[in-house]
Design goal:
The protein has 453 residues and is mostly helical. It has 23 helices and six strands. Strand 2 and strand 3 form a beta hairpin. It is elongated.
Length: 453
């Protein structure tokens, strides 16, 4: 059904049928209209938006990514943009406001009502990445001590401007947060009951200075629809809704995945990223890892005499070092995700180290037994023992590197996701080469063999 509507919309645009455009745009969900607008030029996008009432226009505009919003905002008149700002969600307009040129900001502020203007300035003042930067001021509050019947009247009066009314916040005379009550609890309570008797005083909250990820973690952990945000004086200054927290979680997961592949952040998204942007985001790590892998080559060059004496060793070299890198990448991924979700912390270092050692030893033993048969077939008992011992040592060391590196980076205050698969694999490769040929020297007594040849 939705595909039919978008096809009709294309047809109406081609025919320039204004009446049909107005009807079709009204039938589309705001999110679907925003997706359609993403694919159109600025002139067409503005034309489509003008066919909507201002409240639905603001809703559809909020579904667009910020780069697209900026392009459309630049093409609007200051009066039209100010009107749009007045109907957008508080947090969304603050995000857009921060991305606009200062001259444009001042022009829009001059055309907004004083209350919305001050609210926008306050929300836009918080540092990017903090809870204050993603909170909204569109919520419902009740004074402490008010009775339920009066509380419901207040909710009815303030609900039209609120982003959510399912959770209501109780404030004292100093505007400090003292409790919360759900709309369901209010409806079920007796009219003469004070809200203080039905509210929950054990409130989960975050500070305006906390990182956004903390809000997403708390909303997920406590399964709540909205999370109150308080300032340094414990006053309620905003809330973070579930949908905004999930946007943060998605963005953080995307960033971690990119870092896990040694790719820089793509603000515009992969589909819209320019070739030059994709190049810049990927080249730095690739060049660094090229020079890191030179150390592997140096290790091989150091053992040239060994390789000349036993050419069969070359057959097992990529297999062994790749196994160590793969084991390290697995351990690193598990640790990075555990640190990101708060499942593990620095205090768990000793316990996790011991557990990983047992797990990696079990994996290494299984892989060593699997490869020993091939070693015996290619070179006899000595080569079978060599590749088995090497596999055992390399997999354990690779796993220890993969598990430890995220913890070390986290302790240094760096993002654990920097301990990406390519980085761990490169380090494991270098050490794997050294381990392999060191064991080969010990088992095969290669210095003597080299002197004979």
């Amino acid at each position: 059904m939705q595909e039919d509507l978008t096809q009709l919309l294309y047809d109406a645009l081609e025919k320039q049928d204004t009446l049909q455009l107005e009807q079709l745009v009204g039938d589309l969900q705001p999110a679907d209209l925003a997706e359609f607008i993403h694919q159109e030029d600025i002139e067409t996008s503005l034309k489509l938006l003008t066919h909507l009432p201002i409240n639905r226009r603001a809703e559809a505009f909020g579904y667009l990514d910020v780069p697209t919003q900026i392009k459309l905002a630049q093409a609007m008149t200051e009066e039209g943009l100010a009107q749009l700002f007045m109907h957008m969600n508080a947090d969304e307009r603050a995000d857009l406001f921060n991305e606009m040129p200062e001259e444009r900001q001042q022009g829009v502020l001059r055309r907004m009502a004083k209350e919305e203007r001050e609210d926008l300035r306050r929300l836009a003042s918080y540092e990017e990445g903090t809870c204050g930067a993603i909170m909204t001021s569109d919520y419902v509050t009740l004074p402490q001590g008010v009775k339920v019947n009066r509380a419901l009247e207040i909710v009815r009066q303030t609900a039209p401007n609120a982003e959510t009314i399912y959770q209501i916040y109780i404030l004292d005379a100093a505007m400090q947060l003292v409790g919360t009550v759900s709309l369901r609890e209010l409806i079920l309570a007796k009219p003469t009951t004070e809200v203080d008797t039905v509210m929950t005083s054990d409130v989960v909250s975050v500070s305006v200075h906390d990182l956004q990820e903390e809000a997403a973690r708390k909303i997920s952990r406590y399964d709540i629809l909205a999370l109150p945000v308080i300032d340094d004086q414990q006053r309620l200054v905003g809330i973070i809704t579930y949908d905004d927290a999930m946007d943060v979680a998605e963005a953080e997961a995307t960033e971690d995945i990119h870092k896990g592949a040694s790719v820089g952040p793509l603000d515009e998204g992969f589909a819209k990223a320019k070739i030059s942007s994709l190049y810049r985001r990927r080249i730095n790590w690739l060049v660094l890892l090229v020079f890191a892998n030179i150390l592997s080559g140096a290790g091989i060059a150091f053992y040239e005499e060994i390789i000349e004496s036993y050419v069969v060793l070359v057959f097992f070299l990529p297999l062994l070092v790749a196994s160590g890198g793969n084991a390290g990448a697995q351990a690193s991924t598990l640790m990075i995700r555990g640190l990101a979700t708060g499942d593990v912390g620095a205090r768990d270092w000793g316990k996790l180290l011991g557990r990983e050692l047992i797990v990696s030893a079990s994996l290494a033993l299984t892989m060593a037994l699997a490869i020993s048969g091939i070693g015996f077939w290619r070179g006899g008992l000595d080569i079978a023992l060599l590749v088995a011992y090497s596999m055992f040592a390399i997999v354990i060391v690779g796993s220890m590197i993969g598990m430890s590196l995220p913890f070390i980076l986290n302790k240094l205050g760096w993002d654990p996701a920097t301990a990406s698969g390519p980085l761990v694999t490169s380090i494991a490769d270098i050490i794997g080469v050294l381990i392999y040929f060191a064991i080969a020297s010990a088992i095969l007594d290669l210095p003597m063999a080299a002197s004979v040849t």
